[in-house]
């Protein structure tokens, strides 16, 4: 026969053992998994193999005199920083650099603003209108660049272009006007083309960020009296700031390296020496003039500018992760 322990008196609590002291708990060091490192190693190997040799060749060539003679078998001559000093002392380089930075800033900022406006529009309209708008943007973005440029060159052609034909119908004297011969109108057309090709990516990326914002939050702000502009400024923009940052950074990098649109417009009637950006300037020095040493020096300077533009964002991203 088993005996039960006597129950404690009514209103009296059983004693509770104190928690163990942290001083007596042994410290267990977590072993970091090596799986993430093993997963990124193949990607690093591919990147180094695909990009390491071209970048290394560019850096090495930028310190050499590599011209037409070297293309026919002559040994390149090491000249140190001569290519860089000659380049930095050339006024035409600074003109091209300033023109490229201005074009890059204008194209990227206008692209992000228009992309943000289209993303807000897609958020506000109905399903049918949003689907039509998204398909139209995808078609414009997915169109091959050379095919798109063929259409644009036909639109602005000074002999049979649609632009001059429309202006003539509106009463303007535009018959035979060459829009590509004037550097100002040349860059306006180039700016329109680059923005037209870039807005779909930015708009769809920002729209994807907008879909993650809670509708209840926006409705609560509207009930508290917040206007549409106030909701965009104080709620939507802070929440999608990471998306805006990355698309702006990508646009700055892409618009700084723009080449195909400018080259095809130059071939269609633009004055090359007055409409060069960094991409076409490098092409002209290398392929056109055969001075691959100087062209490599410009490429390295362009790479440094790109790293400088993206450094602030990368540094901010690393701080957030830490």
UniProtKB/TrEMBL annotation:
Pfam family, any one: BPD_transp_1
Region (Disordered): 1-21
UniProt topology in membrane: Multi-pass membrane protein
Protein's cellular compartments: Cell membrane
Domain named ABC transmembrane type-1: residues: 97-313
PROSITE patterns: ABC_TM1
Keywords: Cell membrane, Membrane, Transmembrane, Transmembrane helix, Transport
Similarity comment text for this entry: Belongs to the binding-protein-dependent transport system permease family.
Descriptive protein name: Sugar ABC transporter permease
Species of the source: Paeniglutamicibacter antarcticus
């Amino acid at each position: 026969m088993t005996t039960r322990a006597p129950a404690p008196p009514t209103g009296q609590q059983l004693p509770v053992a104190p928690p163990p002291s942290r001083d007596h708990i042994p410290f267990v060091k977590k072993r970091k998994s090596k799986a993430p490192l093993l997963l990124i190693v193949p990607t690093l190997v591919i990147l180094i193999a695909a990009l390491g040799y071209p970048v290394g060749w560019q850096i090495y060539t930028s310190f050499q005199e590599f011209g037409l003679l070297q293309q026919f078998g002559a040994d390149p001559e090491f000249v140190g920083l001569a290519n860089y000093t000659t380049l930095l002392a050339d006024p035409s380089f600074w003109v091209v650099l300033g023109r490229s930075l201005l074009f890059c800033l204008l194209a990227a900022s206008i692209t992000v603003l228009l992309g943000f406006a289209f993303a807000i529009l897609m958020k506000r309209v109905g399903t049918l209108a949003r689907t039509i708008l998204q398909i139209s943007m995808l078609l414009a973005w997915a169109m091959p660049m050379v095919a798109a440029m063929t259409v644009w060159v036909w639109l602005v052609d000074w002999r049979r272009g649609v632009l001059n034909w429309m202006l003539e119908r509106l009463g303007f004297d535009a018959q035979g006007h060459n829009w590509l011969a004037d550097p100002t109108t040349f860059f306006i057309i180039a700016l329109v083309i680059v923005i037209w090709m870039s807005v779909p990516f930015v708009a769809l990326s920002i729209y994807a960020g907008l879909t993650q914002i809670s509708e209840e939050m926006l409705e609560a702000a509207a009930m508290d009296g917040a206007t549409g502009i106030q909701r965009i400024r104080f709620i939507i923009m802070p929440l999608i700031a990471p998306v805006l940052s990355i698309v702006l950074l990508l646009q700055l990098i892409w618009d700084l390296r723009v080449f195909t649109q400018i080259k095809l417009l130059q071939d269609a009637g633009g004055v090359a020496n007055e409409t060069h950006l960094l991409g076409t300037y490098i092409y002209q020095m290398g392929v056109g003039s055969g001075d691959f040493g100087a062209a490599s020096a410009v490429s390295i300077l362009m790479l440094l500018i790109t790293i400088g533009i993206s450094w602030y964002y990368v540094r901010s991203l690393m701080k957030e992760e830490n």
